[in-house]
Design brief:
This protein has 144 residues and is of the alpha/beta class. It is built from five helices and five strands.
């Protein structure tokens, strides 16, 4: 069975550090990396059929844009490192979706970057890293 690591990636410097660390660990352990990019999307809206159709169209456009603007440049940048990389792009609550992806792919670990936001804002609004640590189905490494 091949080891798989999931790394949350949104193109930010924090997520890039997490991805670099995950790639290095994967190379050492001959593991594969699953790059998880999550677009926030609230399913809680009361919409007309026309609005639902428009929203669905926008969703597909945003998924394609995420693939083109975030995932493809990253894959090109890391090509040739000797690590198998797969990408998954989904809509949902970021922490929950990354944990779901980890379960689905049989990951043995999650890597996530910490953006360095203030302690007060993290307490008031929460943080993705903190939420993942509380709900993760596998060990989680937070990369500063």
């Amino acid at each position: 069975m091949t080891l798989k690591y999931v790394v949350g990636y949104d193109g930010s410097p924090a997520s890039r550090r997490a991805a670099e660390f995950a790639l290095e660990q994967a190379r050492k352990c001959d593991a594969a990396v699953v790059v998880a990019h999550v677009l926030e999307w609230s399913p809680y809206s009361f919409l007309t059929p026309e609005e639902i159709e428009e929203r669905h169209k926008r969703r597909n456009e945003e998924l394609a844009r995420a693939e083109t603007a975030v995932i493809e440049p990253f894959k090109q940048d890391i090509a040739g490192r000797g690590v198998t990389v797969e990408a998954i792009i989904r809509y949902g609550h970021i922490a929950d979706t990354i944990c779901d992806i980890a379960s689905e792919v049989g990951a043995s670990q999650i890597f996530i970057g910490r953006d360095g936001s203030s302690a007060i804002s993290a307490r008031v609004f929460g943080s993705v890293a903190g939420s993942i640590v509380q709900t993760t189905p596998v060990p989680c490494t937070i990369v500063p």
